[in-house]
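[09:14] KT: can someone run the structure on this one? pasting the chain below
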Amino acid sequence: MKMKLTSCVGALCLAGLITVPTLSFAASSNAENKEVQRELTSLEKEVKHLESELSADKQNHAKVRQESNLSYHGRGEVRQHHVQTNVTANDQSTEAQAPAPVAQAPVAQAPETRPLLTRTDVIKMAEQERQYLPFDLDVPGQAFVSTGPYVGVPVQYAGSYLIVNSPSVNTDLQLLKIRRSIHKQLLAMGGELFKEPYHSHLLLSGLVESQAGYFDPGGSPSRTFIDVTNVSLDAFFIGPSDWLQGFVELNYDNLPPSAANLYTVSNSRVFVNKAFVTIGDLLKSPVYGTFGQFYVPFGTYSSVMVSDTLPKLLGRTKARAIQLGLNIPGDNAPYGAIYIFRGDSHAASVSKVNNGGVNIGYKFKYGSVNGNVGGGIIADLADSGGMQVGTGFNAFEQLHHRVPAYNLRGILNLGEHINAIAEYVAAKTSFNVNDMSFNGSGARPWAFDSQLAYSFVILENKPSAIGVGYDVSHQALALGLPLERYFIVFNTSLWRNTLQSLELRHDRNYPASDTGNGPVGADTTPGACNSIVCTATGKGDNAVTAQFDYYF
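[09:31] RB: done, structure tokens below
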């Protein structure tokens, strides 16, 4: 506005300077000279009036800017919008009250003078917009669809700098915590909280992961590879109710189409990995419920490694289940969940809802020491991913009896740099010898993982970590697991929303004297130990893997 007024004043003055000599030479009477004088006087009055308006406008903007800076220093257009909408909570639209403070544009932009909107004006405008558009004034985003952080949370910090790979267990609870953080953010901003039925968002995020490496299997030729190992697109549905949210995760398959067709890129099919609905609001109640397809909370399988841990390969279970959870707020508090689902394996003549489990734990923080310990049980280990893929169980689901299993785990963070992880998964009883055997008897598999990591910063501000790990399994030959696994890894994040990893791994396989098999009579599955007795090689495998993750 200042620039417009200045230009106007200059133009008027210049017009006066040009008009005076022209009229003087052309005038032929005193009457015409008097007329010119009257016009000049009128112009001078207009100029003075414009100058006084400009001075008043400057004072008004200075006052508004001072009040706005004291109220809130906004970051970005979304927060500025919320400040303008909500900091006028005490404004009653009366002329006696001071104008409501509004967030200022960057200094480089010249402010524009316009009538300041009151709270009532903004509400009326929002209601008019909602009559025609699915428009939402709350964060995240101002529209139904927006982008945000990777909601699957595959990168998290244990301590201040350690990067830990999440195994996708307890995703529903992670999303509830994200939504609680959004609520708290709005409260800190003084913003309008979520109001039905207008609050509804679709938050999109995802992952692209590539690997390159070298693999030397004992007794077989070595090989190298470059692959896109993971592509994920996640959709987090928030609302419209404060108690309702949903999640869908789409993945792609990087395996060859079949054993007969090894043209890998001709596959790349997209499939639904997870899809569930959660009812809960951690700001109002610690109890929540989830139903759909997800990884049930049997174990957590947290790791700093690129390769999967042996407990994860043995026990992680994905199902179409119903779950009831409890998460007590605070640094020192218990948590837990119970769940049921219809497993693919069954001991009865027909399959029915016959599987489920319980998960309990305790999170704690005492000074610079914090952590999480817990355990759980599941009614039948045969429904785990390690059992169902590549063992023959998926082709011959009726077992002689079910095999329960239990899980023990713990994460301990000492200060900001030292982190320890341990997890144990074991079958409670032995399998029937015709379902899964080891050295001629019913197998009773278990697996243990232990890791120690140290986190630090490189290149001034890049979070990094180096970790070492040792895994061991027992009577798991039929599952294709090694007897022991040693690994060392270096993780860093050179760019925001990325993770770079380099891992060295050595596997020691079961001795050649050991034998095992999966379900007798099952159809032949590539890599499975079914009716044909499998023997171990007794040799070791070595692998070097470089991985790059980009999250969006």
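[09:33] KT: thanks! The two ends are 41 Å apart (CA to CA).
[09:34] RB: yep, looked fine to me
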